[in-house]
Structure formats: structure tokens, C-alpha cells
Amino acid sequence: MKGELIFGVNPVKESLQGTRGAFNLYVQISASDHRVEKIIKLAEERGVAVHRREKLDLTKMCASSHHQGIVLEVEPFQYSDFDDLTAAVARSGRPGFLLVLDGIQDPHNLGALIRSAACSGADGVIIPKDRACGITAAAEKTSAGAIETVPVAMVTNIVHSLEQLKKLGYWVYGLDGTARHSVYQTDFSGNVVLVVGGEGEGIRHLVRKQCDVVMSIPQFGGVSSLNASVAGGIALFEVARKLR
């Protein structure tokens, strides 16, 4: 194969409706519902070859049984350039809203956070090159196609990128479960960067020092912490509620 595989009804549909190059569509022989037929039509309109395969063949191809009978071979994921992303936001003429992920290592959490970012109206997602998960088939599947609708930039140094964003007029808000200040007490305005830390250690010390405000999500039950993607989703929509 000359590309990467994405699978699942929504990720494949969104990809075919986007600009990412596609080479081959693999469809389970027994799959025939209206969603699959629509995807086949999209593929044919784009000149993508359609192949019928047994379910077991698709499972082996994806190394996963969660393909929903549809698999698409696409060109490798193209990360957005950091400078191009910030310039595009500046040209939009409205306040920027960016999500920065500091060390998310689970592709399902990454996909879920990208999906929440897209749904909450974020302009882009920034992830580190090292010690973190990149865009994988699992992340794309969990994003349910959202990864095709919101730019994702990969940077070498999160701290340096936050410094650049602050020079561009962004305020940096970090999520930290130990913070006494609540996300609901925070008055988000202007250009906003929301920083969500990794599943284990949270926001790293040097990244935390770049935050203008550190805030937590109040909890009222017996569990001590939230999943990274759940916490990020709550905070993203609180930012969106106050910005929009």
C-alpha cells in the first residue's frame, strides 16, 4: 500500500468529502446499507477504486474489528504548519481559539479531544512531536471524521510555541486538577489557548509556567480525577460558551 488506512463510516465519509488524496476503498461484501452506498458513490465521484472484501480480510487489514465494514486507503496525514495556522486565524478577523495538548499518549483520547475541539469551534489543535501520540488510524476513528475539519499542527517544543502565541496576543489557560481557581470562574475573552496535559502527569512544569491562568474542574463525587479527553471536552465547551 502507498498510503495510510482509515476506517469507520464517519471517518471515511469525511475524508472523501475533504481534500485528502484517496487511493482505494475497501467495502465488506455483506455491507449494503444506505450509508455505505453513499460512501461508495462519493468514492466513485472522486475516481477512487472500490473493492469488495470479506469482513475478516478488513479486520486483518486494519488490525481492528471496529471498521464497520468500510476502509479507505489515503495519503499520509498532513499536519498544518504552526505559522500558517496562526496566520489563518489572524486573517479571519475574529479572536483565535486554540487547543494545545501537552503529552497525550492514548490515540483514543487524542481523537476524542480533536472531535471536541472541532465541535466547540476551536480554530486548531497543537500537539508535540515527541513523547506524545500522533495522528493514527485509531485517533482518526475516534475523532469520527472531525480530524478532516480542524487543522492539527505538530511542533517540536510546546513551551516555545506557547511563547510565540503569547507574543501574538493569546492568553494561555491551563487545566490542572490541583488548581484552586475553577474553569467556571474564568472569564475567557480575546485570543484563547487552552492547554490540556497528558493522562498521567498532566501539564508539565515548564508548560504550566507559561500559563497565564491555571484552573480546575470542580468535582463532587468520590473519584479523584477525570479522563484527559473528558476534562478537555468540558473545558473546551466552557470556553466556547463564553467566547461565542
Features:
244 residues, alpha/beta, 60s Ribosomal Protein L30, Chain: A, Alpha/beta knot, four-stranded mixed beta sheet, 37% helix
What does this structure look like?
- With 244 residues, the chain is of the alpha/beta class.
- It folds into 2 domains: 4-74, Ribosomal protein L30/S12 (60s Ribosomal Protein L30, Chain: A, 2-Layer Sandwich), CATH 3.30.1330.30; 82-243, SPOUT methyltransferase, trefoil knot domain (Alpha/beta knot), CATH 3.40.1280.10.
- 37% of the residues lie in helices and 21% in strands.
- The chain has 9 helices and 10 strands.
- The chain has helices spanning 9-17, 34-45, 55-62, 82-91, 107-119, 137-143, 158-167, 205-209, 228-243, and strands spanning 4-7, 22-28, 49-53, 70-74, 97-102, 124-128, 152-155, 170-175, 191-197, 213-215.
- A 6-stranded parallel β-sheet has the order 7-6-5-9-8-10, with helices on both faces. A 4-stranded mixed β-sheet has the order 1-4-2-3.
- Helix 1 runs parallel beside helix 2 and helix 5 (107-119) runs parallel beside helix 6 (137-143).
- The longest helix has 16 residues, at 228-243.
- The termini are far apart.
- The relative contact order is 0.15.
- The model has no long low-confidence stretch (mean pLDDT 91).
